[in-house]
From TrEMBL:
Organism: Kribbella karoonensis
Chain positions recorded as Mg(2+) 2 binding sites: 226
Pathway entry: Amino-acid biosynthesis; L-isoleucine biosynthesis; L-isoleucine from 2-oxobutanoate: step 2/4; Amino-acid biosynthesis; L-valine biosynthesis; L-valine from pyruvate: step 2/4
Protein name: Acetohydroxy-acid isomeroreductase
Swiss-Prot/TrEMBL cofactor(s): Mg(2+)
Length: 491
C-alpha cells in the first residue's frame, strides 16, 4: 500500500510490520486530491451497505465538488427510502442504475452478490472510458474466475471492504462527529491499476467512510476471509452454538430464561465486551472456572477447526459461491423463510427486559453467577481461535485475520445481536451471509452437540490451551486495538 496523499504508517504485527493508514475527519479536506479526477461517484444499490456508504460519502465530500449519486434498478422498493435520506431524481443524485453508472467516474457496486453476478456485464457495458470500478466484496471476482472471465480492461478495479455491517458503518460514522476517528475498520485492495492512482482512490473512499484504520489486502484474500467468516464465527457458528448450548442447558435442568442467558446473552453481552475491551485471554479468567473453560475449549477446537477448513476449501474452489447463485435462482423474488422458529427465541424479549435488574446482575435463577459462563465461553473462544488459526495457516495478513475473526464480531455484529438477538441478525443480513448461515449453522450445531459437549468430562488438552494462550493473534489484536477510538458501539 502506498499513497501520495495520505500518511502510510507501519504497524507492528507478529513476525514483522503491516502498512496502515489512520482515518479521521481531519483528513476529509484531502479527499478530492486523493480521488485524482473523480468528480462523480455512483453507488449502485441501497441495501445496508449501499445506504451507509452513500450517506457517509455524501457527508464527507460535502462542499468539495465531488458528487454522490445512488443508482437503483427500475421499480426498486428502496427508491422512497433513498429519497427520504435526501437523494432525488430532480438534482441527479438518484436514478436508474445504468444511467448512474454511465455518468460516474467511480462506480461502487453494492447490489446483492447474486444480482451482481447476473447483471455485471450490463453495468460494464455502459462505463465511461477509464472509470474506476469499486467493490466492497470480492464475490464478483470469484464468480468471474469461475466463468473464465475478468474485469474489463482499461478500468481501475479497487475495493474498500468495511469490517462490519452497514448499520454499524453508518452509526459509528455518525459518532465520529463528536469522537474523531470513530467508525468501522476497512480493508482495501487494488486489483487493477492502469492509471496508477488506485491506492489513493481506495484510501480516499475508506477515509470518507470513517474507517479508523485501513489495511491492505487482495481482492481474492478478502472474499475468502469474508465469506468464510460469515459462515463461521461471525454468523453461522454463532447461531449453531447458541442453539446447541440452549438445548444443552435445558437438558441439564436450567429454565428457559436461564438457558438463554447462559448461551445467547453471555456471548453477545459480557463475552463480546470482554474481548473488545481486554482481549481474548481475558474471557478465560472472567469465566470463573478456568478448568471447565479449558475442557470446553479443548473439546470444541478440533471440530470447529475442521469445519472452518471445510468452508474455506469450498469458498476457494467456488462451491460456496455457486451454492449462493443457485439458491438465488431457486428463490427468485420469494422471501426466505425465517430461522428464528426454535423455542429459545420466544424468550428473547423476556431476557432483554431483565437487563439492569437483579436477575441479570446478581445471578441466574438456578443460583449460578451471571455473566461469562465457562462452557459457553470455552466453546465460543475455541471457534474464534479455530478461524484465526485457519486464516493464519492460509497466509492471510494479521490485520485481516483479527478484523475478520475478532473485531468485526465484537465491535459490530455481536452488539447488534445483543440489541435484537442472533436469529434476528441472521434473518436481516445480506442474502449471501444468510444463505451461508442456513447452510453451515446446523453443521456447527451438530458438531457442538455430537462432539464437543459430550466430551466436557475429559481433561483439557495442555497443548491446545498453551497454543491458545501463546497465540500471536493476541499481539496482533492488541496492536489493532490501539488504533480504535474509545467509543461505545452504537446499535
Amino acid at each position: 500500500m502506498e499513497s501520495s496523499v495520505f500518511r502510510v504508517e507501519s504497524m507492528a504485527v507478529p513476525g514483522g510490520t503491516e502498512a496502515i493508514v489512520r482515518g479521521g475527519r481531519d483528513l476529509f479536506p484531502l479527499l478530492p486530491d486523493a480521488l485524482h479526477g473523480v468528480e462523480r461517484i455512483g453507488v449502485l444499490g441501497w441495501g445496508p451497505q449501499g445506504r451507509a456508504q452513500a450517506l457517509n460519502l455524501r457527508d464527507s465530500l460535502a462542499g468539495t465538488g465531488v458528487g454522490v449519486a445512488v443508482g437503483l434498478r427500475p421499480g426498486s422498493r428502496s427508491a422512497e427510502d433513498a429519497r427520504q435520506h435526501g437523494f432525488a431524481e430532480d438534482d441527479g443524485t438518484l436514478g436508474d442504475w445504468l444511467e448512474v453508472a454511465a455518468g460516474a467516474d467511480l462506480v461502487i457496486l453494492l447490489i446483492a452478490d447474486a444480482a451482481l453476478a447476473a447483471h455485471h456485464e450490463e453495468i460494464f457495458a455502459v462505463l465511461k472510458p477509464g472509470a474506476t470500478i469499486g467493490l466492497s466484496h470480492g464475490f464478483l471476482l470469484g464468480h468471474l474466475r469461475e466463468r473464465g472471465s475478468a474485469f474489463p480492461a482499461g478500468h481501475p478495479v479497487i475495493a474498500v471492504c468495511p469490517k462490519g455491517m452497514g448499520d454499524s458503518v453508518r452509526r459509528l460514522y455518525q459518532q465520529g462527529a463528536t469522537v474523531n476517528g470513530a467508525g468501522i475498520n476497512a480493508s482495501i485492495a487494488v486489483h487493477a491499476d492502469p492509471d496508477g492512482h488506485g491506492w489513493d482512490r481506495a484510501l480516499a473512499w475508506s477515509v470518507a467512510l470513517g474507517s479508523p484504520y485501513t489495511f491492505a489486502t487482495t481482492l481474492s484474500a478478502e472474499y475468502h476471509s469474508d465469506i468464510v467468516g460469515e459462515r463461521a464465527i461471525l454468523l453461522g457458528a454463532v447461531h449453531g452454538l447458541v442453539e446447541a448450548l440452549y438445548r444443552y442447558f435445558r437438558i441439564d435442568g436450567a429454565d428457559p430464561v436461564t438457558a438463554y442467558q447462559r448461551s445467547t446473552e453471555a456471548i453477545t453481552g459480557p463475552i463480546a465486551r470482554t474481548i473488545s475491551n481486554e482481549g481474548i485471554p481475558a474471557v478465560r479468567a472472567a469465566s470463573g472456572d478456568e478448568d471447565l473453560f479449558d475442557r470446553a475449549y479443548s473439546a470444541a477446537y478440533g471440530p470447529a477447526r475442521d469445519l472452518v477448513a471445510e468452508i474455506y476449501d469450498e469458498v476457494a474452489d467456488g462451491t460456496e459461491l455457486r451454492s449462493v447463485i443457485l439458491a438465488e435462482q431457486r428463490l427468485e423474488d420469494r422471501p426466505m423463510t425465517e430461522i428464528g422458529g426454535s423455542p429459545m427465541w420466544s424468550h428473547s424479549a423476556e431476557v432483554h427486559a431483565l437487563r439492569g435488574t437483579p436477575r441479570a446482575t446478581v445471578g441466574y435463577a438456578d443460583g449460578r453467577a451471571a455473566g461469562v459462563d465457562p462452557v459457553t465461553a470455552g466453546l465460543f473462544v475455541a471457534t474464534m481461535m479455530a478461524q484465526v488459526d485457519e486464516f493464519a495457516a492460509r497466509g492471510h495478513a494479521w490485520s485481516e485475520i483479527v478484523n475478520e475473526s475478532v473485531i468485526e464480531a465484537v465491535d459490530s455484529l455481536l452488539p447488534y445481536m445483543h440489541a435484537r438477538d442472533v436469529a434476528y441478525m441472521v434473518d436481516n443480513c445480506s442474502r449471501t451471509a444468510r444463505l451461508g448461515t442456513r447452510r453451515w449453522g446446523p453443521r456447527f450445531q451438530a458438531a457442538y452437540e455430537q462432539i464437543a459437549l459430550p466430551h466436557l468430562d475429559q481433561a483439557a488438552d495442555p497443548a491446545k490451551i498453551k497454543g491458545f494462550l501463546d497465540n500471536p493473534a493476541h499481539e496482533a489484536l492488541a496492536a489493532a486495538a490501539k488504533l480504535r477510538p474509545s467509543v461505545d458501539i452504537s446499535v
